[in-house]
Amino acid sequence: MNRILIPLFLLMAGGLTSNSQTMDNTDTSLAAAEELQLTQEWDKVFAKSDKTDHRKVTFVNRYGITIAADMYMPKATTSPLPAIAVSGPFGAVKEQSSGLYAQQLAERGFLTIAFDPSFTGESGGMPRRVASPDINTEDFSAAVDFLSTLPEVDPERIGIVGICGWGGIAIQAAINDPRIKATVASTMYDMTRVTANGYFDADNSADKRNANRAALAAQRTEDYRNGSYQRAGGVVDPLPEDAPQFVKDYYAYYKTPRGFHHRSGNSTDGWNTTSAMPFMNFKFFEYAGELENAVMIVHGENAHSRYFGEDTFKKLHGNNKELLIVADATHCDLYDNLDKIPMNQIAAFFNTNMPAAK
Fold it and tell me: Cis peptide before 151, with omega less than 30 degrees from 0?
């Protein structure tokens, strides 16, 4: 019989009791779902497919935050189905890129959900627009909790897709949660690395990190004094003429009808500024070499973010890991350009690594 090994400090600290009795003030039940106000009309930045059915769903994560998601199911299909949870990019919402991926994969035979992370979009959690390396990783596992209990889903065939900053978070979730049988990280960022070191590791020094920590700590004091959180700002607008090409690419997606959505932080005023603090003191992929289940990392040949994926791929072990470089594609091409996103290869990867029982 498998046993869960419980660290001694948890028992000594009273985190868990060693007998069958619980204290009267201990509530071990799951948190009740919050009643969210969900938009019922189609408000995605992509067209609705006539090959899938769509509905809104909610589920609760381990921190008691209610997550809002769009569920897509292929029409005229037979259950149980393989399932995929999708989120990202970092600061985006399910009405943007993640929803497009989810709908496309549903057309290819998967039950999918595209979810808003905790504190963002239509999901619950206060205050708004908080990012967390821990809670956001938990969001993926909470999605697996939800999918595993659906009668339409085969719980042994669940995978995840993370886009941009959520690509790194998806891999981090898969390292910790073996129920995730296959993971795709598309056009991924390592948010812990870029926050601590800057783009292309240009700010990788203790002096620069300590200066950033001091500024963020001062902002915390100011936020508390003001009773509100400063926003970091979304994609820069107006766009400076000398902006790097990848910033221009972000603008072309988030600030135009192509990808703008009023609930998206990247499209509007961004995260709470102090959300950056934990990412500076947290390192993803410490145990990446222990990830046994399958991973595909997808990047554009011309993506500024390509180094995140290539360096992360080097940390993965096993013959079920794949690095796919898309010719003549940029970072944002893999947000919504269906001529560039290798959707059929992604679907084949999931089918290969989440096979139906014989």
Answer: no
